[in-house]
Amino acid sequence: EQDLWTPEQYQPQEWLRHSDTGELVTWEACQTFSGSWGYHRDEQTWKSPEMLIRMLINTVALGGNLLMNVGPTARGYLDSRAEAALQVYADWMKYNNRSIYGCTMAEPDLLRAVPRDCRFTQSQDGKRLYLHLFAYPFAHLLLQGMAGKVAYAQFLHDASEIRFSEGAVRHFSEGAAKAEDLLVLELPPV
């Protein structure tokens, strides 16, 4: 019986399931910072900082763990490209680590509220829900089915409060299936 599933060099689109039982499995995405599993002097396919962060968020948002492989030079050091890739994670995690460590996929009933270009991660105790924005929306972010479920919203990078309104907001609810379930986050300009 397999204890840990390890997809390599691709990002799953959903939490991995056992092929026979359909049960959710423990999994870890095995990725590289570049196109090579080891050091390669002439490597030209290094992943962008944006791709590295998205891979981390996507993996946790689907219940997995991310394992990043990097190969040292023959001298036993990491080259500047590898150090720069690792620094991407260090810089981002400085402010956002709470949305990754101790987090997993959000509860299924919350997933229907995930807007396009966003991902949810949730603390394992279910008390905190983190919304990751891959594309920053203009002024407002609509979360269908989230009214009454949020007590407080804030940015992780500076702990500033995000104002929100609930229910039927005429301007936003036209055409919405259930306007009374709508949560509207009021985002400041970037």
Question: Can you characterise this structure?
Answer:
The protein is α+β, with helices and mostly antiparallel strands. The chain has helices at 49-61, 80-96, 108-111, 170-173; strands spanning 28-32, 65-69, 103-104, 118-123, 129-133, 140-144, 163-166, 182-186. α1 (49-61) links the parallel β1 and β2 (65-69).
Overview features:
single chain, 190 residues, alpha+beta, three-stranded antiparallel sheet, 4 helices, 19% strand, globular
Provide the fold topology.
Elements: E1 28-32, H1 49-61, E2 65-69, H2 80-96, E3 103-104, H3 108-111, E4 118-123, E5 129-133, E6 140-144, E7 163-166, H4 170-173, E8 182-186
Parallel strand pairs: 1-2
Antiparallel strand pairs: 3-4, 4-5, 6-8, 7-8
State the gist of this model:
With 190 residues, the chain is of the alpha+beta class. It has helices spanning 49-61, 80-96, 108-111, 170-173, and strands at 28-32, 65-69, 103-104, 118-123, 129-133, 140-144, 163-166, 182-186.
